[in-house]
Write a structure and sequence with these properties.
The chain has seven helices and seven strands; from the N terminus they run H-H-H-H-E-E-H-E-H-E-E-E-H-E. By secondary structure, it is of the alpha+beta class. A five-stranded mixed β-sheet has the order 3-4-5-6-7, covered by helices on one side. Strands 1-2 form a two-stranded antiparallel ribbon. The chain starts with 5 loop residues before the first helix and ends in a 6-residue tail after the last strand.
Length: 207
């Protein structure tokens, strides 16, 4: 009560109002989504509640067919009616490479990420070491608007280094000189963000 004002703590919210907020805010953030993806965004309403919300708000929504980036069958999704008209207002993706957190909103829904981008990603910290496909804590790599691979790295606080152990690029993504130069610039940025002094590239880190 010393932090949250009474007007936000005391009023009761009906389930209908709550479902409307959860679905509306999820779809606003996702841009387009299936019933299941709307439900999964906050994980606070059931798929049936999300489906009922869509049915009740059809006047505000349009059905859109979303084709995966790497080809495949288009899948019906829902978006707010002004979705198409706002697409031209978004700036183009910068060409730089970015290391994504495993919890970045773009990839938090692993099934959606795989469906849209053909990029399979799981955190393997709970997978026994002999069964890990990549590593203990591997970060996805985003280049422009494309997920191009993943990298295994860790900050060593005692040595003040960012230790880069291994790089995996997706099929068809080549380790060109320009791409590696952009990646190393991003690693320098991550090192500064992590508060360590330098990047250490392990032997054979390029795979």
């Amino acid at each position: 009560e010393r932090v949250i004002p009474a007007e936000f703590r005391e009023p009761e919210v009906s389930r209908e109002e709550f479902v409307d907020w959860a679905c509306r805010s999820a779809l606003t953030r996702l841009g387009f989504a299936t019933h299941g993806e709307i439900s999964a965004f906050w994980n606070l309403v059931s798929p049936d509640e999300a489906k009922a919300w869509v049915s009740a708000h059809r006047v505000e929504l349009i059905e859109v067919l979303i084709e995966p980036a790497l080809g495949g069958k288009a899948r019906p999704s829902w978006a707010f009616a002004d979705f198409i008209s706002t697409l031209d207002t978004y700036p183009g993706a910068p060409p730089r490479i970015r290391v994504l957190s495993p919890f970045d909103p773009m990839i938090r829904d692993r099934n959606r990420t795989e469906r849209l981008f053909g990029f399979f990603y799981r955190i393997e910290i709970f997978v026994p070491e002999p069964k890990r496909e990549y590593g203990y804590y591997v970060f996805p790599l985003l280049e422009g608007d494309r997920l191009i691979g993943r990298i295994d790295m860790k900050a060593d606080r005692k040595k003040s280094t960012l230790d880069v152990k291994r790089l995996w690029l997706e099929p068809g993504v080549k380790p060109s000189a320009g791409r590696l130069e952009r990646l190393e610039a991003e690693l320098e940025r991550v090192a500064r963000f992590a508060g360590v002094e330098k990047v250490v590239l392990f032997d054979g880190w390029r795979g």
